[in-house]
């Protein structure tokens, strides 16, 4: 509301307009109020100051006391996105009646819509390739209910989980706005750290009975059993709060939100946030980095692109469903003609998910309805293609697609071909749809012909051969006659205007025709608007069918995308099975291989892991030799196989994996005061405390953030823990600690491998080929040399290395290698390391 400080109006000085503004603003205290005054949206007080900075518009003062800013009414779509993207809640307050000329009463106004970062269908705010989720969280003790809704697509999800996993889901869905209880403000501020825009809700709204009733009332059901969420008490509360929020923000037309889907943790692979980051799935570790999504996303429609991201975030762990996706990809891949034909048809499909939402909300344009009709024609063609296939899988998809010809024909008969975006531009309704409209249009279209006949008739009647009929906005239609012919003007004509050389008149017939024309134009606009709204109301009955088609088209798009990627990059169908064996032959990193000019330049590698004789592979070798690439590519190949994609390898037998963990790289978390080593230990502890029977783990340089002996001790203990654990998770461990090569002497499922290096004339060549056996040297000085280190430093380092080697050989003669190593190991193991190791065992055994 407007601040009543010493520079502001007192209540007695408030004008009726400002009083009305303040009364409305009081109802929306945390919101920018756009207040329509005639052809402008005006903004007052602190709101004006804020908006002038965000929108870069002029800030003035009204009566030198109240700040004022504004922009034209018709420019709303230009300015609104900037406000919402800046994290503002915006209340749009329109005039609800026409201003009366000379009227003393203030025009009635009211808020027609409240737009927030999480609730918008404005295309300028939304990202075509991403969902725009509104989230709601309800916490009870150590558990939470979490719900996500995208009002622009109708996607509605709910999940329940442990309190510690809140951020995991938030990072995956990346909501634009989060709702939570006012009393939990401090907790959420602590975990969000201003990363997410949030809004506080009153505690009473988080009542189970109230929220349950909201949901069944909206879905018009007697219970929530049909959605499979009846037992999710916390999730129901979170979901009901979202619906309440929609009603509070004036969003009542939400028929397109027709279902709610439970996120079933037991049906999806768990990939923690560190792993998504380390594998560079969506975001590179540097701004210019290429990501996995850049390589495999060949989707054509916006719905397909959004679905692909969802599939990557939630990979399947149900073998039948995975194999079904692989089979469809294989069928697309085997038929080049079908693949090209489907691509061609998909290119004609617009973002029908969001178009459907606009129909439900009632904010659809004629042009968008036209694009829907074109999309439905393309879907009909896709359906015909699928229904003639021999494949049962493709036939099944074709049968699930609803025949949209009825809906398409309704639109085609109603809407004019190539209509305008705005309803008030006219020419919206197709010719022949309404006899009444066609008749009125004929009156308007024959205007010139009628006026020409009238002009000719009056020329003959009056004998004034140069008589003309003209028109302007002030006087309307008129006869224009030279002053020299004034005496020939009929006495019943009425003078409208006198000019220098001529005069303008009107008679009864011209006046009546003018009224008829003006009324016709208004009638056309009113009738077209009415017919358009009738069409929208008719389409509401088909929303569920349209939404189902949108979902199926998205699936077709993603699976077709997988086949295109497989064709372009030489990927193969993986064999997903229930065994505990991973066998990747000539695996490649899908991103790195694309950086090579020739695809054959990339060196592929084999990976074999199982629970019987090769559970853990310890990989040694210098920096730049390719250790990290092998770790990452193996995890990525597993991920790709579980989402239904083919994989970059010659062949791949992949056991079902339910969790992928990674610990790669070293970095500080300065904002939390955590060192590199602390971050490393936190992430590693998370892995060790959450492993399962079907986990896959990649570890890179564990223990590097502390002293050498401490690091070796921790790395040894962690590897030992993974080996001795009853779950026996499959793991790849890349390390510079060559001492770990000794572990295979004592643990039968640990095997040593290294990246092959060729030495020639004190130079080294990275062969990037994984071979059995451990590497005894790090070649750090050679790596420093090729990185451009001054040669003087390189020579000095070589001398020091020789000196240290000679001393080490003298020491080794005094002690046997094995005894010396274990003697060293027992001495340098510090108390805090023991505590860490013991805690790993203790927490895991408790689980």
Keyphrases for this structure?
27 helices; 4 domains; MutS, DNA mismatch repair protein, domain I; 7-stranded mixed beta sheet; alpha/beta; Nucleotidyltransferase, domain 5; 847 residues; 6-stranded mixed beta sheet
Would you write up a description of this structure?
- Strand 14 and strand 15 form a beta hairpin.
- The chain has 4 domains: 105 residues, DNA repair protein MutS, domain I (MutS, DNA mismatch repair protein, domain I); 130 residues, 2-Layer Sandwich (Nucleotidyltransferase, domain 5), CATH 3.30.420; 267 residues, MutS, DNA mismatch repair protein, Chain A, domain 3 (Orthogonal Bundle), CATH 1.10.1420.10; 272 residues, P-loop containing nucleotide triphosphate hydrolases (Rossmann fold, 3-Layer(aba) Sandwich).
- The protein is 43% helix and 18% strand.
- The strands form 5 sheets. It has a 7-stranded mixed sheet, sandwiched between helices. Strands 3-4-2-1-5-6 form a 6-stranded mixed sheet, sandwiched between helices.
- It is built from 27 helices and 27 strands.
- The protein is α/β, with parallel strands linked by helices and 847 residues long.
């Amino acid at each position: 509301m407007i601040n009543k400080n010493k520079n502001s109006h007192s209540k007695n000085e408030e004008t009726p307009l400002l009083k009305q503004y303040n009364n409305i603003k009081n109802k929306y205290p945390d919101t920018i109020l756009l207040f329509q005054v005639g052809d402008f949206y005006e903004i007052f007080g602190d709101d004006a100051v804020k908006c002038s900075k965000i929108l870069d518009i002029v800030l003035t003062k009204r009566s030198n006391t109240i700040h004022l800013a504004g922009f034209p009414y018709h420019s709303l779509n230009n300015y609104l996105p900037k406000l919402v993207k800046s994290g503002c809640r915006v209340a749009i307050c329109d005039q609800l009646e026409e201003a009366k000329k000379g009227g003393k009463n203030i025009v009635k106004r009211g808020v027609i819509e409240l737009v927030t970062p999480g609730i918008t269908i404005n295309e300028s705010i939304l990202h075509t390739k991403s969902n725009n989720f509104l989230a709601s969280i309800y916490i009870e003790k150590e558990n939470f209910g979490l719900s996500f809704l995208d009002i622009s697509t109708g996607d509605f999800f709910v999940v329940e989980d442990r309190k510690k996993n809140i951020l995991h889901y938030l990072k995956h869905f990346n909501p634009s706005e989060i709702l939570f209880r006012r009393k939990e403000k401090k907790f959420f501020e602590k975990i969000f750290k201003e990363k997410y825009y949030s809004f506080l809700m009153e505690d009473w709204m988080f009542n189970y009975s109230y929220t349950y009733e909201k949901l069944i009332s909206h879905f018009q059901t007697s219970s929530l059993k049909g959605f499979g969420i009846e037992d999710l008490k916390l999730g129901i509360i979170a979901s009901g709060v979202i619906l309440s929020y929609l009603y509070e923000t004036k969003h009542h037309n939400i028929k397109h939100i027709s279902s709610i889907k439970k996120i079933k943790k037991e049906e999806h692979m768990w990939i923690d946030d560190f792993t998504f980051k380390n594998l560079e799935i969506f975001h590179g570790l540097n701004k210019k980095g290429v990501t996995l999504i850049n390589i495999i996303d060949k989707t054509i429609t916006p719905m397909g692109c959004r679905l692909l991201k969802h599939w990557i975030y939630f990979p399947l762990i149900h073998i039948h469903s995975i194999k079904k996706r692989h089979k469809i990809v294989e069928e697309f891949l085997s038929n080049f003609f079908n693949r090209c034909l489907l691509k061609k048809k998909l290119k004609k499909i617009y973002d029908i998910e969001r178009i459907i939402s606009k129909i439900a909300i009632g904010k659809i344009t004629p042009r968008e309805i036209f694009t829907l009709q074109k999309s439905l024609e393309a879907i009909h063609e896709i359906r015909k293609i699928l229904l003639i296939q021999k494949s049962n899988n493709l036939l099944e998809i074709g049968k699930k697609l609803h025949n949209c010809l009825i809906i398409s024909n309704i639109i085609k008969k109603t809407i004019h071909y190539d209509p305008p975006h705005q309803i008030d531009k006219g020419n919206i309704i197709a010719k022949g749809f309404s006899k009444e409209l066609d008749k009125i249009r004929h009156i308007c279209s024959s205007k010139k012909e009628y006026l020409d006949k009238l002009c000719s008739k009056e020329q003959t009647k009056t004998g004034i051969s140069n008589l003309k009929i003209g028109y302007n906005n002030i006087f309307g239609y008129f006869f224009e006659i030279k002053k020299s012919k004034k005496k020939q003007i009929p006495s019943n004509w009425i003078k409208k205007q006198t000019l220098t050389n001529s005069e303008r008149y009107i008679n009864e017939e011209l006046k009546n025709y003018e009224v008829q024309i003006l009324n016709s134009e208004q009638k056309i606009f009113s009738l077209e608007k009415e017919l358009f709204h009738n069409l929208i109301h008719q389409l509401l009955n088909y929303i569920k069918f349209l939404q189902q088609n949108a979902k199926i088209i998205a699936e077709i798009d993603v699976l077709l995308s997988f086949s295109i990627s497989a064709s372009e990059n030489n990927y193969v169908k993986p064999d997903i099975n229930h065994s505990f064996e991973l066998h990747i032959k000539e695996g490649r990193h899908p991103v790195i291989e694309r950086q090579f000019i020739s695809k054959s330049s990339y060196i592929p590698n084999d990976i074999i892991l199982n629970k019987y004789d090769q559970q853990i592979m310890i990989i040694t070798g210098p920096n730049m030799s390719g250790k990290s690439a092998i770790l990452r590519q193996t995890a990525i190949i597993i991920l790709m196989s579980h989402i239904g994609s083919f994989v970059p390898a010659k062949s791949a037998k992949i056991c079902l994996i339910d969790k992928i963990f990674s610990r790669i790289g070293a970095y500080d978390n300065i904002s939390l005061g955590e060192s590199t080593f602390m971050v490393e230990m936190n992430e590693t502890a998370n892995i060790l405390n959450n492993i399962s029977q079907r986990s896959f783990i990649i570890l890179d340089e564990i223990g590097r953030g502390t002293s050498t002996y401490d690091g070796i001790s921790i790395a040894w203990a962690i590897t030992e823990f993974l080996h001795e654990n009853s779950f026996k998770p499959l793991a790849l461990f890349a390390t510079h600690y060559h001492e770990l090569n000794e572990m295979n002497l004592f643990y039968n499922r640990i095997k040593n491998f290294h990246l092959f290096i060729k030495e020639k004339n004190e130079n080294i060549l990275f062969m990037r080929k994984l071979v059995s056996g451990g590497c005894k040297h790090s070649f750090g000085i050679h790596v420093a040399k090729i990185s451009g280190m001054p040669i003087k430093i390189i020579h000095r380092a070589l001398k020091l290395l020789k000196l240290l080697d000679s001393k080490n050989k003298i020491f080794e003669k005094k002690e046997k290698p094995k005894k010396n190593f274990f003697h060293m190991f027992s001495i340098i193991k510090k108390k805090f390391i023991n505590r860490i190791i013991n805690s790993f065992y203790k927490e895991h055994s408790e689980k």
